[in-house]
């Protein structure tokens, strides 16, 4: 009898959820489209699948991280914020939340995600912009690749490293600070690592985007870059160094805009985005590290790697560390 | 003053003012406002923080060397090429004319990346070849340096200088040079004492435009300067505001105000240096016919020099791009690389709906924008040159307003401005923004062409009973054809590859080529980036060819030759 009751409750709940889903879909359809402001790359397949599966059009506006907050706030204050859904690094969404630009929405699709990914009822984390030591496997033998981050300070890598500029690239600054907090045992050990890395005279580029090209061409055989390029740049001879310590990265977040012109389409889009299907596409096609349980990018060994989301650094702290790294890396 | 001229001047001040003042006012407001937008509580903090930065002094020194070096390089090379292509019997002139403007068509980001692939000290192709050929221990060149930046920026700005100097060179009155020879001066002395001084307005205009452009340039400082840790104003501004997630463009605008002041000063210096414009008249009512200087024994060596130069600045970077578009990933050329070539990136780009939409939008903006822009520039250039009042001076400064701002700032100025209007997020916002920002590209070649047309011609037309518009249509415009062609080419090629404004103003449906290229760059997809870059160059080359051929048909000089 008890079992029957449980089965009935489950059935009723799923029927109610299904009805709610159908209701949301109906209302979203009547709104016509969902506008998505994001800085994540190569997500067109998900946008297309959303339109095909739901019959609601999705429009993707890609805004680079440096222009994201300025653009969103300018539009919001002029009453022209056209986004229904916003996606960006967690610190960006926190800034928007502070301005009252995010609505509260708990997506049922995130139910299976780890508890820490639900920052609050306005921001949901779905991935980590993970950074790793990437090398050219035709030039560097896997046996010679770093086994620990400290190995990057080995003089054998002098003039052979490329990395985003640690004096102003926020994600890289966050990553270096993350190493201090999660990887190195002491402040002295971390500073010794930084001094060694600086002594190896890494070549600086503006962001993570330009890091893989010099590695694959052999201009710089090793670099601080992202494993996702192993997928997006295949068949380039890229591999990631299996360091014994965890990988780190800035969390990627998504939320519904508080003044969304299409609020139901916005919710439908967030549900779709967080679904296993979308996250699998993100992992498989773009090599992203996603937080949906059991979904991993098709990169050898990544499913066993430990990836930690770094703490959210306020801008003042990023600038403080940027100035510190300027001294350490002796950049004028 | 003639009342119709004064009415024209004030109407133009109004039109150009509406186009250029809005975004600059927004930037001024933003630089004095707390927060991240144009409107906030008054503060001077942004100025104090921006100007007390201890790194600023070094940055100013680097910037000065970079800007003067690249402008000098581009002006000298442009003068050299324009003289040979227009005044001498050097072979393959038509080809060299097109090659001289190719760097204008290549997105600056791609041009810089190509040079990094050629001259980087680790495995740059030219360095590898020289190391092997000469048995050197280390690479002879390092592009990641101040001189590398000057070289690449100089080559990028060369077409601007060329397109300003070439029309002036083309409508040169041979009588001046003949008189010089009659008095016993040789070719060289005539060139230095007569030809160059008469071309002073064009040369100065080219140099000043180069200065303003390289001050605003971001691609070269970012791709070439940053790896060499050479920081100039543009990269300094970027570092200053973009360290963190809440980018404060108001602070960059605070520094931008000094750049604006420097540019406006330059315009006034230019006006003072070319004030006695009668001195530069080369087309008067006496009739004129530019003659061809025979190079004789120097023909072959000079041909080789021009061919090498064209090869380095146009053929080589385009070849690198073409190669990159065929190999599966960034590879140094080798037998293996050639065996792996394929059309994967081309297929991907040509079947990508967003790339095709951006192609359509950019083509529209290039053709419509340049046509409207040149139409406006003809009137503005006429007033600047022929109406010598204070109002004309104001008009000239106004036309430089948006153009003078560092690239990373002006786009945001336009966003702050357009968001207050119904044009926001439309293709029209891009069209207006493009014309407003790049007006000097239309005005400068036309102004240096106007300088050479004597007012007697207009006066004769008036005496014969023609009105101002008829005189413009029947007398002035036909004489201006080389200038019009140059202006149209400069604007159209600029608009086809425009990034600065587009990156801020483009929205779904209004994507343009440069945005698509930037997306590929952000994702590190150099193959697709190069394929789309080549398509972009192809479109621009077609536009240049059409403009040149149409121009040649209407050029009155042709019938005299």
**Mean model confidence by pLDDT of chain B:** 85
Low-confidence parts of chain B, pLDDT < 50 over ≥5 residues?
557-561
Binned strand content of chain B: under 5%
The averaged pLDDT of chain A comes out at 91
Secondary structure tally: strands of chain A? 12
Describe this structure in words.
The complex is a heterodimer of chains A (332) and B (561). Chain A has 332 residues and is an alpha/beta fold. Helices cover 41% and strands 19% of the residues of chain A. In chain A, helix 2 (44-54) links the parallel strand 1 (33-38) and strand 2. The termini of chain A are far apart. With 561 residues, chain B is mainly alpha-helical. Chain B has one domain (3-560): MetI-like (MetI-like fold). Chain B has helices spanning 3-31, 45-51, 56-87, 93-100, 102-105, 108-119, 125-134, 146-170, 174-182, 187-198, 200-216, 219-225, 233-242, 249-273, 299-326, 335-339, 344-350, 353-386, 390-404, 407-418, 427-437, 439-451, 455-463, 468-496, 502-505, 513-522, 526-554, 556-560. The longest helix of chain B has 34 residues, at 353-386. At the A-B interface, strand 2, helix 3, helix 4, strand 7 and helix 7 of A face helix 13, helix 20 and helix 26 of B.
